[in-house]
Amino acid sequence: MGPVSRRPRTQTVPTDAGEARITWFRATAAPPRLVLAVSHGAGGGIEARDLQALAAALPGHGVTVALVEQPWRVAGKKVAPAPKTLDTGWRGLWPTLAEPGLPVVAGGRSAGARVACRTATELGAAAVLALSFPLHPPGKPEKSRADELLGTGVPTLVVQGGNDPFGRPAEFPPGPYALTEVPYGDHGFAVPKKSGRSEAQTMEVITGAVTGWLTSLG
């Protein structure tokens, strides 16, 4: 008998906002403890470096990772719809994410993080992972979205680049959440060559922080 396949499995899910897609990376360590469902931002998809790093690292720690593509991405559109429509797509996916019968941690990067924060309590998420939370539009700190982050109602981890123009770690208000800074990282967690840090080192900061935090959830 050969080894168990670790290839991801893709699943399409109908929602009221259109057809969405989940790519499952099943836990390889038994027994599986939880599902981490993470969606993309408004400017990219699940190929983002941080999402792929989590999908590679977490299954070995008993975490099934579900990378979620919102309907607008599945349909090949270039521009994300309004936040209300993003929330509708996420709600429609939730029963499928919960189907394995494990606690589900809601997560996302940028716009996806906002969706996870806004809907966490309503959907019964065990916790929220906010990657590159867009605290405000670049150059407009007065247009704060802190209320979304502060209102999750569940354990929350923010992972934020030190040079993120959508909100540097020092700009975040105090609140009932944890925050991990990714040194020199921009909104996509890219770091300049002059920093002396490699992409692999940067991804290790992210995966290490998320692994430790998920473990602390019990």
TrEMBL record:
- Which UniProt keywords are given for this protein, alphabetically ordered? Hydrolase
Every KANL3/Tex30 alpha/beta hydrolase-like domain range = 35-211
Q: Which Gene3D superfamilies would you find in this protein's record?
A: alpha/beta hydrolase
Enumerate the Pfam families for this protein. Abhydrolase_11
Signal sequence range:
none
Q: Which GO terms describe its molecular function?
A: hydrolase activity
Record protein name field: Hydrolase
